Amino acid sequence: MRVGILTDFPSVVVQSGPALHTRFLHDGLRKRGHEVTLIGPDTNETAPVEGVKSLLFKGYPYPSHPNVKVVVPSPLSRLAHPPKMDVIHGQTNNHIIEWANWTRKMHRTAVLNTNIIHLPTHSHFVLSDKMYDNRVVREIAQQSALNVEREFARMYNDGDCMIVQSRFMVDYWRERGVTVPIEVVGRPIDPSKFSKLPGRDPYPAAAKPGARLVVVCRHDREKNLEQLLEIFDEHIAPANPDATLTLIGGGHAHDHYVQLAAAGRHGDRVFFPGEIAHGELVNWYAFADVFVYTSLSETFGNVVNEALWTGLPVVALDDRMGVAHQIMDGVNGFLINPNRVDTDARFARAVIGLIENRELRRELGQHAASYARSMSAPDVVLSRFEGIYERAIRRVHDEIKVPLIEQSKARQRYELGKALATWARYNYLLLAIGGASFRLGLGRKELDTSAVATAKPRESVLHDSGPFVRVEPNPLTTDAAE
């Protein structure tokens, strides 16, 4: 098959789930003999797209996230004459989908779209800290995001299939008006990174084995790390003198979380090693005891999948989205209802129960690794996509009897112009709003992403304490079958 992947990240300029998944799809499909083209914004000035076949359009940096490019319809010659493709797989919350739907009409190219972002919980990105603190403003932003989702539902219906990454999102999108077939496919794990034997214990000497809690995520509002820090400081740390919490990652709110932890009663037991290379995360999972997660914004949650794959039990809030899709309560972890008055205490009890019961940790860890391999092995995921692509191709050929390419030039130009006008209107409006908000101080301050990407772990946290004794590294990080 000739597959086009529509993406905001034709090169991996950030360590995000969608960017990593795009590269997995590209590499995996090529290894299976498919011809793959990455379609998206031109990022060559910051991170060249190397070693891949690509179709790149003009992209402008979003004001508060300069590594994220907003793609616009230019140049016209590339838009009007795309390479031949059997299917376009959209992995973007972007109105470039309008152009993909035009290629469907023009060349009978199957189009399917994966929902990668829960817009209501990410609507805060356009708000400054001061505006975000205003409940009314937050609710207006969230309602606007809901309206945009209905617009996306319209675009999805002009394609052949929608893919969601958790079973909970099927009804969610049906309620928003999606009528095309919906498939559920999670994200894969790279065994070369997460099935290898771990190296040396990376945790500081102050983090005793047996009571190490870890979370890996972007340090930003939607990850709900304030609640996690409060649970640890108020409930977990007082109940277990050996418990420590390590928060791996960086982001807009990183310094805020560092200050918040330091202001707590147990700040000396909270560690911030910063960004860790993706291939090195296996060491942090392998030498941890419990993965803790309080985010309620995940359409999937790559880090949860990674933790489970390495045999690390997870305690998380029941988001009824991507995280809950991966965790079977009491089998490979625990899900805590986020809407109770005693949510924090219940979350802490689940964590403490695992800390104090080594055998339970081992049992849940074994189930975690087994389940993750059954659902997230690369061949399993790629085979699912191939089947979906084939069904989408059959559907478009059944539905479109006469493609635009066989109709008049005037009709072709009209349909292309209509698609490009809608794409341009929404994306230039997004850039205008982002730019105005940023200049007026109403949007978020720019994050020095280059500093985050190259940040060294803090010496005070990751000091060299001599050789570490490998105290029961998780044996499930190796998979004899792979």
Describe the 3D structure.
The protein has 482 residues and is of the alpha/beta class. The protein folds into 2 domains: 2-188 and 378-447, 3-Layer(aba) Sandwich (Rossmann fold); 191-376, Rossmann fold. 44% of the residues lie in helices and 15% in strands. The protein is built from 18 helices and 15 strands. The protein has helices at 17-31, 76-80, 97-107, 119-122, 129-132, 135-157, 168-175, 191-194, 225-239, 254-263, 281-286, 302-309, 322-326, 343-355, 358-376, 378-399, 409-440, 449-454, and strands at residues 2-7, 35-41, 53-57, 59-62, 65-71, 87-91, 110-114, 161-164, 182-184, 212-216, 244-248, 270-274, 290-293, 314-317, 333-336. The strands form 3 sheets. It has a 7-stranded parallel β-sheet, with helices on both faces. The protein has a 6-stranded parallel β-sheet with strand order 12-11-10-13-14-15, with helices on both faces. Helix 3 (97-107) runs antiparallel to helix 17 (409-440), helix 9 (225-239) crosses helix 14 (343-355) and helix 12 packs across helix 15 (358-376). The longest helix has 32 residues, at 409-440. It is globular. 45% of the residues are buried. Residues 447-482 have low confidence and may be disordered.
